Amino acid sequence: MSPSGEFAFGFHPQQGKFLLAIWYAKIPMNTIVWIANQGTPVEGGAKIQLTSNGVLLVSTQNGTEIWKAQAPDNRQVTSAVILNTGNLVLSTPDSTVV
């Protein structure tokens, strides 16, 4: 959830499966503004991982990789934060935004 509560990030239900998404959290229809795995929704038990080498990864419960995004230059990433603008940002240990 963004600090203002305006945006949410996570698995959003879609026709019995789930999409990794960012959506407006304060409006009744939860309008989605970004989807990672649109063509490949996942079942319950799927995982979101942020690896130390900057990979944001969606995998199934049994570990099959569905979608991933890589930080430039394989930079070390230690956090992911959703801002009040709805942007998801990854940061390095020294707080540099990737």
From TrEMBL:
<dbReference type="Pfam" id="PF01453">
    <property type="entry name" value="B_lectin"/>
</dbReference>
<keyword id="KW-0732">Signal</keyword>
<dbReference type="InterPro" id="IPR001480">
    <property type="entry name" value="Bulb-type_lectin_dom"/>
</dbReference>
<dbReference type="InterPro" id="IPR036426">
    <property type="entry name" value="Bulb-type_lectin_dom_sf"/>
</dbReference>
<dbReference type="InterPro" id="IPR051343">
    <property type="entry name" value="G-type_lectin_kinases/EP1-like"/>
</dbReference>
<feature type="domain" description="Bulb-type lectin">
    <location>
        <begin position="1"/>
        <end position="98"/>
    </location>
</feature>
<protein>
    <recommendedName>
        <fullName>Bulb-type lectin domain-containing protein</fullName>
    </recommendedName>
</protein>
